[in-house]
Amino acid sequence: MITTRPGYPRWHTASAQGPRSHNADAVGAYAAAGGPGIVFALADGVGDDPTAARAARVAAAAAARTAVHKGPVEAVLAAQRAVRELGGGDAVLVVAMPAAQGGYRIAWVGDARAYAWDGGTLTKLTTDHTLAEYFRARHQPVTPRMEHVVTTSVRTAGADEIGTTETASTGLLLTSDGVHKPLAAAGMRAVLARPGTGAAELVEAALARGGSDNATALYVEPLEAGSTTVRFPVAA
């Protein structure tokens, strides 16, 4: 079901399986009655099997349904509790919660990303929790394989390992690595700069660029665009 609410931004999402055997990406979005806005979550299952897909769906749903006043770190921990109740499976995750002063509070584990978008500038808000970033930050050599090895995940991360940040931007983009790795920042910016484009066009462009993974994007248009929110049922 799709509904609109005046005063909130329009948002949309797209996902493609790509050349994988399963689509292990998932999104969640939930606006509690009387709440200050919509909580958004994007999860990318670790692996290419049904348990990874289920872990991503469970993580995204649990994170999105976390009360806003509890904050985005608690949303990741709620996802962790839900995933640990499963028999197996793991995921990386990024969560964006409305901030009281506008914009979003963000928490993440792994290499799912959040970007701010103001209609012209795309700003990366998160730093990948990968082996590559760990060594890069220490000015050590990095191999291509390190880019795909995450150092935190929903199932394993300690509370002090969860990344956090904030943005005043009302325009937001959440992506799985199947989108941001093939396109990079310049490619995503070029897609979003075209009028009328968003999540679907990002996913299509990533696969056209030779993406070899599931590709998922959740795009919240800047409020300045004067649009309204579009909701869909939370991932489950």
Automatic annotation (TrEMBL):
Domain PPM-type phosphatase: 10-222
InterPro entries: PPM-type-like_dom_sf, PPM-type_phosphatase-like_dom
Region (Disordered), start-end ranges: 1-22
Name of the protein in question: Serine/threonine protein phosphatase
Organism of origin: Amycolatopsis melonis
